[in-house]
Amino acid sequence: MKDTSGLGLFAALLEELLPEMLEEIPASHPLLAEAARQSCVSRVTVLADVGEQRPMPVTYDVPLIAAATCRPLHPGISNREHLFNFGIDIVGLLVREYERSLRTSLYTSNNGFLGVSGLLPAVVGLNEIGGISERRSPGWRSQVTQTRTTISDALARLERQCLRNGQAPDLVLLGTNAYREIIASYQPQQRFRDVLRGIPLLKLNRSSVFHDPFCETDTGYVLHTSDFAFHASPFNIFVEAGLDGRVQVAVIRREQMLSYRRFRSGRITPSPPRLRTGSEH
Q: What CA–CA distance (Å, rounded) separates 57 from 221?
């Protein structure tokens, strides 16, 4: 049946614009930008270096990450200029929604997407990730330190704990409160900047610091970016017109952040609140 609603032209426009714009999102995050990019299948296996005599196989199920929106499409819109403007609005909405989904997954370890929070759990010792148990394989665990003093001191300790062949981690991801504490501890003339793939970063010790509002506010991650890989399949784009005249658009693809050497990275967790004693009143 001939498409008289302009839906066919609209779908073709999205197929042309969306993938390129969505692919730019990982480039705006230093870990996603630096991690090795690999095409993925529904399940991947890597050989994880866990400090044993030989690498151990780790298997991950690669989850689906999706973004969707629904907007009314007037049946009279068939002019290419009007369709283009409508398409740009939809693309903008989907790009923001997809970025939120991806960045949230990077820190919340939900729906099968491990992210740095899943690969570097707040408590070590009894976790099982990728089929490797920390109880059975003591090397398969991250470094975790609590911010008992300052974020700067915690970062310095983690850098020393996470050396790899004498090299310190090259990237620190900080939530908003932790980043503000770092900024406040340095005078403006003491703050040095670094640029990674066009992303401005704060230079601290031997690492570059990235403030990410999607990261837990008081938490931070100290990483060797070369130890990570980002598996992502091509985007699937779905466009469907409802009986109410609204157009539903969704983008879906399989994605997973993997770590080959989890024990060589580290996590900062906030200290539990200290209980005041009677002598402090």
A: 24
Q: Which two tokens stand for residue 126?
A: 């009894």
Tell me how crowded residue 242 is: count the other CB atoms within 10 A of its CB: 11
Maximum alpha-carbon separation in the chain: 83
pLDDT in tens, 176-231: 999 998 888 776 656 667 777 778 888 877 788 999 999 998 899 999 999 998 98
Residue 277, judged by CB atoms within 10 A of its CB (0-12, 13-18, 19+), counts as exposed
Find the distance separating the first CA and the last CA of the chain, reported in whole Å.
80
- One-letter amino acid identity for 217? T
Which residue stretches of the chain are H helix? 7-23, 30-34, 80-108, 115-119, 151-161, 176-184
pLDDT tens sequence across 129-184: 877 888 887 677 778 877 667 888 888 888 888 888 888 899 999 999 999 988 88
| Beta-strand runs (E) in the chain | 36-38, 43-48, 56-61, 64-72, 128-129, 132-133, 143-146, 171-174, 192-196, 199-204, 207-211, 220-223, 228-232, 236-241, 246-259, 266-269
User: What is the residue type of 125?
Assistant: G
Interatomic CA distance for residues 260 and 274, integer angstroms? 36
**CA 192 centroid distance within chain:** 25
Q: Which residue has the higher pLDDT, 51 or 135?
A: 135
Contact 143, 158 (CB under 8 A): yes
Q: Token pair for residue 148?
A: 């008992």
91's CB contacts (< 8 A; 6+ apart) are 14, 17, 18, 21
Cα-based distances in Å from 41 to 60, 74, 98, 137: 10, 38, 20, 27
C-alpha closest to that of 220 among 171, 254, 260: 171
